[in-house]
Specification:
Radius of gyration: 29 Å
Number of helices: 4
Shape: globular
CATH architecture: Sandwich
Strand order of the largest sheet: 4-5-6-10-9-8-7
Strand content: 25-35%
Largest sheet: 7 strands, antiparallel
Distance between the termini: 81 Å
Structural class: alpha+beta
Helix content: 25-40%
C-alpha cells in the first residue's frame, strides 16, 4: 500500500513542534556557603621553618590563640575546632570545642569530665573547690584539673571561656605524667587567648 507524502506532512509538523517545545538543559554553578576562618595566631616559624597552622571553623565570633614553641595544631573534625599536640610525642593532647549557650551548665560539664577519667561526680561545693581562674584578654577562664586513681593514671585539665553566647572548652587529657609535662604550655595557650577580630 502506498502512502502519499502529503498525508505525512501533518504528522511531521506535529513532531517538529513537539521537539521545539522541549526545555533546554542548562548548567549553573551554585556558590558555596561562606565559612569564616577562626584564626589561631599570626603565622610564625616553629620547628624547622614550618609555619604555624591555622584552625578552621564556623563561628560568628571566635578566639585567637598562640601556640608555644614546639606545639603543633591540626584542624579539628566533627565538634572539634582544633587539636593541639605538645612537643616530645607525649601521650596527651589538647582539643578545642565551641558550643552555644552554657552547654548544659558548669556542674554538668565538670562531672562529664570526671566521668571520662573514672572519677565519681561532685557537687557545687566540690566543683567550686576544684576551680581556679586565669585572666585572659577574652575574659576569665575557669580551670579544672583532675587526675584519676589507680595504677594507670589519666589527667584532665579543662579551661572554660565564655564569649558572648558561645562557651569555649579547651581540654588537655592523657597520661598523667605526660599531661603534667604539657601543663605549662597548655596554660600559656589559655593565658594568651584574645578575641578574634572580624575580617
Amino acid at each position: 500500500m502506498k502512502i502519499r507524502f502529503a498525508a505525512l506532512l501533518p504528522i511531521l509538523a506535529t513532531l517538529q513542534t513537539t521537539a521545539c517545545r522541549e526545555e533546554a538543559i542548562t548548567r549553573s554553578r551554585v556558590p558555596k556557603a561562606e565559612t569564616r576562618v577562626v584564626r589561631a595566631a599570626p603565622d610564625r616559624a616553629i620547628g624547622e621553618g614550618m609555619p604555624l597552622p591555622k584552625s578552621v571553623g564556623q563561628a560568628a565570633r571566635g578566639l585567637a590563640w598562640t601556640l608555644p614553641p614546639g606545639w603543633q595544631e591540626v584542624p579539628g573534625n566533627g565538634m572539634r575546632l582544633a587539636t593541639f599536640a605538645p612537643p616530645g610525642n607525649l601521650k596527651t593532647e589538647a582539643t578545642v570545642v565551641a558550643l552555644p549557650g552554657d552547654s548544659g551548665g558548669e556542674l554538668a560539664n565538670v562531672n562529664r569530665w570526671r566521668g571520662q577519667i573514672a572519677l565519681p561526680p561532685t557537687d557545687e561545693a566540690g566543683m567550686a573547690a576544684s576551680r581556679t581562674t586565669l585572666a585572659t584578654k577574652a575574659g576569665p577562664a575557669a580551670i579544672y584539673d583532675f587526675t584519676s586513681t589507680g595504677e594507670v593514671r589519666t589527667r584532665l585539665i579543662a579551661a572554660v571561656v565564655k564569649t558572648g553566647d558561645t562557651t569555649w572548652f579547651f581540654k588537655l587529657m592523657g597520661d598523667a605524667t605526660a599531661t603534667e609535662t604539657a601543663r605549662t604550655g597548655f596554660l600559656a595557650i589559655i593565658k594568651g587567648l584574645a578575641p578574634d577580630a572580624p575580617k
